[in-house]
Amino acid sequence: MLFHQETESERLDRLQTLLVLTEASYAHINRVNDYFREHGTTQGCPGVDRSAAKVIDDGIRSGEFLDGLPFSNHDVLHDYYEIQRLKHEISALESRMDQFTGWIFPGGEAIISTEENRLQLKFDKGISIVKRLILRRYGFSLSAVDNVWERRLEREAIHAASHIRFVCPKDGISPEKIQPYAEQQDRYNQE
User: Phi then psi for 142, rounded to 5 degrees?
Assistant: First the structure.
């Protein structure tokens, strides 16, 4: 059975959708609890139909609701912390998606494909069998669809590419040294 591997952009879209839904849930929970505190009932509360309001009110009167509110403090805090977690994860994902830079090497270029979450090595002409074996040794595989050699986009892929001499930049600098995260690390080490 084949599974679809979620790309970074698909994951970002999913997390942003989940954030919107969780924020709407959090707002609804607070609105219903505030309405109940003010009126002593959920009858007439926006977003709560009459039958649900009756069940909630009866449950509160009989003591089934531990906090004496339609939604417990646990529910409120759960949504609050889930919103914080999602915001943090979205922020980390967005910064990670922007932290790689491609380069040109003799006979081709290294492309950062954030959409497909791949480091792609595109060669101007075909490459020898020896070079193919070296690329495979460092974890790259040939994509027949795009006609590029690729590997999952992560720091280890850039590190592996820096050990392959024929894909290093024309000026001889290691691919790791031209990455934005390397500049941040250099600034950190200087301080």
Answer: -85, 125
Predicted confidence (pLDDT) per residue in 18-59, tens digit = 999 999 999 999 999 999 999 999 999 999 999 999 999 999
- Say if residues 71 and 48 touch (Cβ distance below 8 Å): no
User: Last residue of a domain, which of 40, 70, 97?
Assistant: 97
Residue entry with tokens 């060669």:
123
Task: Report, in angstroms and rounded to the nearest whole number, the Rg of the chain calculated over CA atoms.
Answer: 27
Query: What's the pTM?
Result: 0.59
Residues 177, 113: contact at Cβ < 8 Å? no
List 142's β-bridge partners, or say none.
149
The DSSP element (H or E) to which 126 belongs, if any, is: none
Residue-wise pLDDT tens digits, 103-141: 999 999 999 887 788 899 999 988 999 999 999 999 999
Domain boundary, last residue among 49, 68, 97: 97
Q: Are 10 and 78 in contact (CB under 8 A)?
A: no
Alpha-carbon torsion angle 72, 75, 80, 83, nearest 10:
-160
d(CA 122, CA 136): 15
> Is residue 108 domain-shared with residue 84, that is, in the same domain?
no
